[in-house]
Amino acid sequence: MIDLSIHQETLDHAIQRARENKILLPTFAQMRHPEQIPEKVKKALKNVGLWDVNSLNLFRISWHNEPTMNGGNFGKVNTIEIPSELSGVPARIFVMLGKWFPTGCHKVGASYGCLAPRLVTGQFDPTYHKAVWPSTGNYCRGGAYNSKLLGCDSIAILPAEMSKERFDWLKTIASEVIATPGCESNVKEIFDKTWELRQTRKDCVIFNQFEEMGNVLWHYNVTGPALEEAFRDLSKNNPKSRFAGVAFTSGSAGTMSAGDYLKDVFPTLKVAVGEAVQCPTILRDGFGGHRIEGIGDKHIPWVHNVRNTDMVIDIDDNDSQNLLRLFNSEVGKAWLEKNGFSKKLIEDLSFLGISGIANVLCCIKMARYFELSSDDFLGTVATDSAIMYTSRIAELDEAEGAYTDDMAARDYYSHLASVRTDNMAELGYEDRKRIHNLKYYTWVEQQGRSIEELNAQWYDRDYWNNIHHQVDEMDKLIESFNEKTGVLDLL
């Protein structure tokens, strides 16, 4: 359970800071149903850019943002569909877009889900504490951004080999940026740095997405319902439609909680977790380095409800890297158009960052494995868009030379049209228990979690449900916080 006990003296500090900085907090219900957002807020947002450092942008932590960089309000869930002529499978694959969140990534939602419980209970003092955001990429961007909106200092921690765009932007937002050794799969080095901060700096509060249940709370109650809404909208004209499954590369595994929600609504739905074949921790208890930015391996996140995961799918990071260049270089886009793909589809493909491309490949493999039909839908998310990876395209050009038509043809046929059902497995009871047990080595031996709670995650059927349903209590605390600040009356 998320600790929602009240620390009144610190809470008073947080309320005073919010009052001074005119900070109003969105409830989880408002992020799920933006029609519940006060009209005053919607009106004020018409003068606020999507990435502006303006606390009103907390209300744009939603999958329903109007797809514009300036002054947008809310509408349908932002999605694109990957047509069969590109995917090679008859199943309908749709992707929810992180591009239209502040910072261009939905991780602002997960970070808000972690920060808000401690802020409105007084467990985090924005007048004293620094918020520490350990991450393999986008989570620390979202955390630093939310910290800035909330008027508190932040420390972003991420691997040194992450994209240049991330570091350049973070230097303008975070109070401090720490680069740890290695690449996406070097998560232990991130954890080691957080332990060092815990032991040496009393003003640091760690918001570790890999273990913070606020991450679960946000994705279960916001991302899951958005996927349901998108499916119902896309399938409304076909009574035979079936929501067959969802697939998400693991990362912190927070998005997997959206699968928990969808299983509650669609009991036959399958949930797949993706990872890089270069680091097959889930598939083969393996290890290694990879380049699918934003997902971390060599451990199983504490927040992953493994018992609810039906399949593991491994993706070659060369596939996602080369498809990024195919989809976003001028030569690649021209090749796709010459070969019959529509301008609209080519434009849509720019909404996929590296992990988004990997998620789509997971869905294609899932559709092939289960032999899904045109009545079947598979859903996933694009955490961010290609705008975060222009430097990676330049690196490929430098390594291989200028991109050509022949290279584009190679990338399409080698990395997309030839997707097979290799390096994946349907998970039985013993498989899931083996994966769950891997948590012991990271979380009990290294991070101080109790073996009793580890066992509760597996054996106690109410463990995860109790967390999911803390949302009502959480929203009451947010409403009380807002009422005490009086900020809404001042808008």
Notable characteristics:
single chain; 491 residues; alpha/beta; 7-stranded mixed sheet; 4-stranded parallel sheet; 23 helices; 11 strands; 47% helix; 12% strand; globular
Find the structural class using helix and strand composition: alpha/beta
- Which stretches of 5+ consecutive residues score pLDDT under 50? none
Strand percent estimate: 5-15%
First CA to last CA: what distance?
35 Å
What is the subunit arrangement here?
single chain
Helix content: 40-55%
Number of strands: 11
Strand order of the largest sheet: 1-2-10-7-8-9-11
How many DSSP helices?
23
Based on CA atoms alone, the radius of gyration comes out at 21 Å
- Average pLDDT over all residues: 94
Major sheet: size, sense and barrel closure?
7 strands, mixed
Instruction: Give the overall form.
Output: globular
Structure, explained:
This protein has 491 residues and is an alpha/beta fold. Helix content is 47%, strand content 12%. It has 23 helices and 11 strands. The strands form 2 sheets. A 7-stranded mixed β-sheet has the order 1-2-10-7-8-9-11, with helices on both faces. A 4-stranded parallel β-sheet has the order 5-4-3-6, sandwiched between helices. The longest helix has 22 residues, at 213-234. The relative contact order is 0.14.
